[in-house]
Write a structure and sequence with these properties.
The longest helix has 18 residues, at 167-184. Helices cover 36% and strands 26% of the residues. It is of the alpha/beta class. A hairpin with a 2-residue loop joins strand 1 and strand 2. It has helices spanning 41-49, 71-77, 94-105, 114-120, 122-125, 137-149, 167-184, 195-201, 219-224, and strands at residues 3-12, 15-25, 30-34, 56-61, 64-65, 79-82, 155-159, 187-191, 204-209, 212-217. The strands form two sheets. The protein has a six-stranded mixed sheet, with helices on both faces. It folds into two domains: 1-78 and 156-231, Rossmann fold, CATH 3.40.50; 87-153, no CATH class.
Length: 231
């Protein structure tokens, strides 16, 4: 397994938001993390990333415990988060966004350097000089995806990437995620309110309710189990 959460609990202040959360995914696998608003999905991603400390349990990456590692070390190992709200630098150009992130993540043998990102996402190549904040929502999301894959990502965590996007742009973005995972063995955790699109993309489905995992199985098993009341 590339990423594992085993009995993880976390929260904010005195409030525990998630408890006993366990999930695992292998290289190249896409896991859809689903549930209603407030179920604990984003907190789970932030805990895996180290943005929120785990109160219990263990986070493992490539078989090694990273529960106490700082965020920067997790990024260096290949764990990446595309946050809700995109996380780009809106006042910088597309090229400046990419160059700033690439400076610390790309080197000899990197899976994705700026040139390869531009080849993968030609819309960004066409807009290198454009201020990122002036682009459409779909273009900004493509830029956010580019920033997440720079260097050598091994596991992407994408938090609500389809928010505000037209259906054709969602399809295009999800196709890019699928291609990166399949072609390069990158794993992905997808938190998504577009349940149908997420289940069509995913190999594995984990459903959360009230901060706990209530289902873990294949998309086919999720459909057969009639899990729709969790959304």
């Amino acid at each position: 397994m590339i990423l594992e959460l085993a009995g993880v609990a976390a929260g904010y202040g005195a409030k525990t938001v998630i408890s006993e959360v366990s999930l695992a995914l292998a290289p190249g696998q896409i896991l859809a993390l689903l549930g209603h608003n407030g179920a604990g999905k984003t907190t789970t991603l932030k805990t895996a990333m180290g943005l929120i400390p785990a109160r219990a349990g263990e986070v493992r990456f490539d078989g090694t415990a990273i529960t106490r590692l700082p965020v920067a070390e997790r990024v260096a190992r290949g764990l990446r988060l595309l946050p809700e709200g995109r996380g780009i630098f809106p006042d910088l150009s597309v090229a400046e966004n990419i160059d700033v992130v690439a400076a610390s993540l790309t080197g000899k043998g990197a899976m994705f350097d700026p040139a390869s990102v531009y080849r993968l996402l030609p819309v960004l190549a066409e807009r290198r000089a454009t201020r990122a904040g002036s682009m459409s929502g779909g273009q900004q999301q493509m830029l956010a995806f580019a920033l997440a894959i720079l260097g050598t990502p091994r596991c992407l965590m994408l938090d609500e990437p389809s928010i505000g996007l037209a259906p054709n742009l969602v399809e295009r973005l999800f196709a890019q995620v699928r291609d990166v995972c399949r072609a390069h063995g990158v794993a992905a955790v997808l938190v998504e309110q577009n349940v149908a699109a997420a289940m069509a993309l995913a190999d594995q489905v984990v459903i959360m309710n009230n901060g706990k995992v209530v289902f873990d199985g294949t998309p086919e098993a999720a459909r057969a189990a009639n899990v729709w009341h969790f959304f």
